[in-house]
Design brief:
Length: 329
C-alpha cells in the first residue's frame, strides 16, 4: 500500500538517526534535502567537510555517507516505513549520492527494524578489549550482515593480522611526517573534552581512548603527539579480533555500499554485545593499501579495517543539529 509523504517531524527524526553514523574524523560530510510534495529525500556529499589530503579520492567521504544512508534505512524501518533507495541517481550531479523515497510500498524490513534501536548505542571504542576470541555464531552473523549489503567481511588469519598491525604502524609514521595530512588530523580533533557547548563535529579528547602500551592494535591515535590532559595509558589486547570489509570493485557506488555494509556490521555487533573501532590509516596510502588485502582471499578491494571485541563502550562524539543538515523544499 502506498503512503502519503512523510511529515517533517518524522523526517527530522530520521535525519537525526542518520547523522549518528561514523565518518572519517567525525567530519559528518553529509547534507539532506527533502521534497515534501514527492516524499523524496536526497543525500548529498558536503564537500566543505572533505579531507583532501587524508582522503584525496573522497573514498572515505562516500563510506561515511553510506553509513548515514544505512542508518536512515534502519530508522525508517523501525518506524514501519519501507524506503526505496537509488544510489548515484544523477550522473551529471556526482555530489548527489542517493535519493530515498520514504513512503515506499509493501511491508517494512524486519531485519533492518531490529537494528534501529542500536543506532544511538553504537559508539567507536578506542579502549582495550578483552583478549578473547569471538564466538563463531557472532562472526557468521557479521559476515551475513556485510553480504546483505553486497560486500564481504573477512576475518584474517593470525599472521595476516600481524602484518596489518605493521601496516598500521607504517601508516602512522607516514602521517607524522606529512604536514598536510597531520594538519587535517589536528584540525578535526580536539585535545579538550566536549563540554556540550563546543564544536559539534570532530573528535573530542575523551574519545581518543588511552595511549597504547605494549602490543600494537589497529586504533588510530588522534593525539598526533599532542598532550591530552588527563589521558592515561593502557595495555591493549595482544591478539586483536580484526575484520576486513571489502568490495569487488572500487568505484563511488562501491564505496557507498561499503559504508552501508560497515554500519550494518557495526549495528549487528552492538546488538550482539560487542564493541568496535575502525581504522582506514593503511588504506589512505596507495603504497600500503594493496598490502592490506589477503593474497589468498577473493576480496579485491579492502575498504575498512574493523576491530571487534568485548570491552567498554566508547564515548559519545558530538553531532551537528538537524537544522544544519536538512533543507526542505
Amino acid at each position: 500500500m502506498s503512503r502519503e509523504p512523510v511529515d517533517l517531524a518524522t523526517v527530522a527524526a530520521l535525519i537525526e538517526d542518520a547523522a549518528a553514523a561514523p565518518s572519517l574524523h567525525n567530519a559528518q560530510p553529509w547534507a539532506f534535502r527533502y521534497a515534501r510534495r514527492t516524499g523524496v529525500l536526497h543525500l548529498y556529499a558536503d564537500l566543505e567537510r572533505a579531507l583532501p589530503h587524508t582522503d584525496p579520492d573522497d573514498r572515505g567521504l562516500h563510506i561515511g555517507c553510506g553509513a548515514a544512508l544505512f542508518n536512515l534505512r534502519a530508522a525508517a524501518a523501525g518506524r514501519d516505513l519501507t524506503p526505496t533507495v537509488r544510489l548515484l541517481p544523477a550522473p551529471a550531479s556526482p555530489n548527489l549520492l542517493a535519493e530515498t523515497v520514504l513512503q515506499g510500498t509493501g511491508p517494512p524490513d524486519d531485519e533492518l527494524a531490529r537494528l534501529a534501536p542500536a543506532i544511538r548505542r553504537r559508539h567507536s571504542s578506542r579502549h582495550p578489549f578483552q583478549d578473547k576470541e569471538l564466538p563463531p555464531a557472532a562472526t557468521a552473523a557479521l559476515c551475513t550482515a556485510a553480504r546483505a549489503e553486497g560486500c564481504e567481511l573477512l576475518f584474517p588469519s593470525a599472521w595476516h593480522v600481524q602484518s596489518i598491525l605493521e601496516l598500521v604502524r607504517d601508516a602512522e609514521g607516514r602521517e607524522l611526517i606529512d604536514p598536510e595530512v597531520r594538519g587535517e588530523t589536528v584540525r578535526w580533533t580536539r585535545t579538550e573534552p566536549y563540554s556540550g557547548g563546543g564544536a559539534v563535529d570532530g573528535i573530542p579528547g575523551e574519545a581518543f581512548g588511552p595511549r597504547r602500551r605494549g602490543a600494537s592494535v589497529p586504533v588510530r591515535d588522534f593525539a598526533v603527539g599532542r598532550p591530552v590532559p588527563g589521558r592515561g595509558s593502557a595495555l591493549f589486547e595482544k591478539s586483536p579480533n580484526v575484520a576486513l570489509l571489502g568490495t569487488a570493485q572500487d568505484l563511488p557506488a562501491d564505496w557507498l555500499r561499503a559504508g552501508q555494509a560497515l554500519e550494518r556490521v557495526l549495528l549487528q555487533a552492538t546488538v550482539a554485545g560487542l564493541v568496535a573501532s575502525v581504522t582506514s590509516q593503511p588504506l589512505e596510502w596507495p603504497e600500503t593499501r594493496w598490502a592490506v588485502r589477503d593474497p589468498v582471499s577473493p576480496m579485491a578491494h579492502v575498504q575498512m579495517i574493523i576491530r571487534l571485541g568485548y570491552g567498554p563502550a566508547g564515548e559519545t562524539s558530538p553531532r551537528r543539529p538537524v537544522t544544519e543538515l536538512l533543507d526542505v523544499i
